[in-house]
Structure formats: structure tokens, C-alpha cells
Amino acid sequence: MKVLVLNAGSSSQKTCLYYIPDDDRSEYVITELWSGSIDWSKQDGLADLKVESNGIVLEETANNEDRLTVIKQLFHYLCNGDTAVLETWQEIDFVGHRVVHGGREYQQPTWINEEVKSAIAQLASLAPSHNPVNLQGIELMEQLLPDTPQVAVFDTAFHSQIPPEAAIYPLPYRFYEDGIRRYGFHGISHQYCAEKVAKLLKQPLERLKLITCHLGNGASLAAIKNGHSIDTSMGFTPLEGLMMGTRCGSIDPGIVIHLLREQELTPEQVDKLLNKESGLKGISGISGDMRRITKEMEKGDDRAQLAFDTYVHHLVKGIASMFASLGRVDALVFTAGVGENSAVLRQAVCEKLEFLGIELDSKKNENSPRDEQIATIESSTRIFVIHTDEDSAIAQAVSQLAQGSSKTKPSS
Known about the structure:
Catalytic activity: acetate + ATP = acetyl phosphate + ADP
CATH class of the largest domain: Alpha Beta
Distance between the termini: 23 Å
Site (Transition state stabilizer): 186, 247
Number of helices: 15
Strand order of the largest sheet: 5-4-3-2-1-6-8-7
EC number: 2.7.2.1
Cofactor: Mg(2+); Mn(2+)
Shape: globular
Subcellular location: Cytoplasm
């Protein structure tokens, strides 16, 4: 079967086409036929497109005034030009989507119908940078492939077994009953990385205690015990937790009250401030992109340095709290764009965690590690850099759902 995967983030769009055999081998055999990505974060008003297939890499810049137009431009290269791998769109058997917020109801990969789309839309207020663009992708594929079954794979699902004491907020209990609780996000990535580390360590995941650090434009931590998430930094929405590219992470909630009352900001203005204008971008005044921040640090920019130091401070505090949730940690894992590519960040974080027995091998850290262990022999905790692959994990989930069903599109 051919599975097209759409993975929309707050500042990016990744799309991959996979071939998976229709037999019992599919758990182990998956072939990437084509991949494309869009990055909206590097330049205001522009989108960077990249397509890879047939040994060819195509890159171009597009005006990003209309997000869907740019995505259609990316999809054009699936069936056209030197990167084409399909003659027609109808060769695609299934479409899988990463959907950030699934609420309490959706804890497994799910066939998409009108009811599911309605739920994704209703949950958009809890993931305003994600669920709307996830839904856009679903509706776009309905236009392009109206008869092709689509599957939603939810980022919140992996965290659904977090114990009540970690999930509940210290508010009146009725709010917990109404669904105001910690959901957690980046679950597809956290689960994939945990499984990858278990394979690299050649140990059953059920015996390991891990801390996974998904550090992209959005960032979150997960404490994983016996294969399950037992604590995580993001909460009711993806705004809680670590300082991020443009999101503030956890702040005193009284600040929000102050902004509303004393500075007379509207809820919409506060939402934009906390989600789009804070984090690295807010402190530095330069960018939410860690690559830009580190370049400006090297030039001696004080606010870029302050933004970096603040990011590290909050990340170290968060990791230490996950240690407390687990008691013992077998491996600390860095993943996603910042986690995988910023050696200076990993160095700064691990130096501040030396009191926990963590010791980084500086040479290994600087040598562009990928799916490698970078701790010293003396370190009490292994340290890994893992290339997260949410897309193949989504394709695998779609395949498993399809092979366990009649392979017909569910009714609306």
C-alpha cells in the first residue's frame, strides 16, 4: 500500500509518501518514496520548499501569503517533474495526518469522518497553532482525493495513561471532570524516540526509564517508564511547559490577568502574545529560530545570549523535574530540530545537569550525531541524539489500522 503522510506543525509542513507491503512484514519494512517540506520560520513572508526523491533534491522559495496554495505547490512535485513518483494521485491508498489535540476521546489512530473533523475543530481552541492547520490538510486531501480513506494519529494519545496526580491541575475538581487536565503533546515523537533508544540499547522498552526532549519550534519533555508516559511538560494546551521558539511556556497565570485588566489587552491579543511573540523571539527581538539566535550570540548580541540562557535555564529545570518523576533514568534523549542539530545547546544543558551524574562526551556531541549515544563511559545516564521520524510512525499506524479493518472508508 502507498500511504501519504501530512505532518503540519506551527511553522512547518512535512509530507512523505511511503510504500508498505500488505503482509505481516509491514511492521518491519517501510520504504520512503518521496518527501517534501515547507518551512515558514526562516523569513517573514516567504516559505522555503524542499522536495527529495529519485536521488534528486529540489529547493525553492515561495510567497507564503496563502498557506494552502504553498502546500498545493509542494504536492505538485509528487506527480510532476524530476521528483515525480506517481502518475496520478489515485495511486495513493491512504492518507495519514498528525493531529495535535485529540482531547479525552481520541486515544488511538482513528478513521476520519465528519464527527472526527468536528471534534478536531472543537479542540482548535486548545491547540490554536496546530489543530486548524491539521484540519486544513484533511480538507485539502478531501478535495484532491475524495475517495481515499484518511486517518488521524493524535499527538495526545501517547500521554493518555499519565496518572491522575500528574494529569490533574490544582483547581476545583469539577474542572477536571469537565476535561481541563494535562494532555501532553508531541506524543508520536516521544514514543518513536523511546522505541528507537530501546533498540539501540538492545533492551526491552518495558524495562527502561527515559527522558525524551523534543526540542523544535515547539518543545516538550516526557518521562517514560515501562514504555508509558507518566509525566510531560506540555499540558492542557501546547503552550505550557518549556520556553519555546515563539511560545512562552509556563508563566505565572497572574500575568495573564494583569495583561487583561491593567494593560487592557483583548483575549485574542494575549493569545497572540503568548503563542506567537514570546519565547526566543520575544526575549531576543530577533527570531524564534535557534539557528538565528546562536549566530547572533556568536556576534556578541546580548539579548540573543539572554534568550539562549533563559531557554537553557527552563529546559534544565524541566529535565530535573522529570528525573524526580522517574527516580532513576537510563537515558536522556535529545530530538527534533533544535535537539538534533544544536550541539551548543546540548553542551550547555548537560553541563548544568552534571550534579545528576550526567557527563557529555564533547567530541561525540560536536560530530553531528544521529541515532547515537554521546555520553562518556563514566556518565551515570546514557545520552542519545535521535532523529525523530513522526512521519514513518504515522504511516505505520495507518498501515496497522488498515490491515486490521475491511480497508473501506468509514461512513460519515
